[in-house]
Design goal:
By secondary structure, this protein is mainly α. The chain has four helices and no strands.
């Protein structure tokens, strides 16, 4: 649950600062799913994508999103 909350916060930060449209398509898709389904597991999110993506693929994309959010925060310092 902590990871999901952190991911949603990162996605909302990106949305406010640069907009989700600036993300690559694969990251934007998982970001939108995480916002719409904050309680779903990584496996379940991956199954909602077309084509489906495995749990590790979803985790990798969400980590990239968190890294982008961290870079935005660090730029503001």
């Amino acid at each position: 649950v902590n990871a999901s909350v952190r991911q949603v916060e990162s996605i909302k930060l990106i949305e406010r600062q640069i907009g989700l449209r600036r993300l690559p398509k694969n990251l934007r898709e998982i970001a939108e799913l995480r916002l719409n389904y904050p309680d779903e597991s990584l496996k379940e999110l991956g199954e909602m994508l077309t084509p489906a993506v495995g749990k590790s693929g979803v985790n990798h994309r969400l980590r990239r999103i968190e890294k982008i959010a961290d870079e935005i925060i660090n730029e503001g310092k």
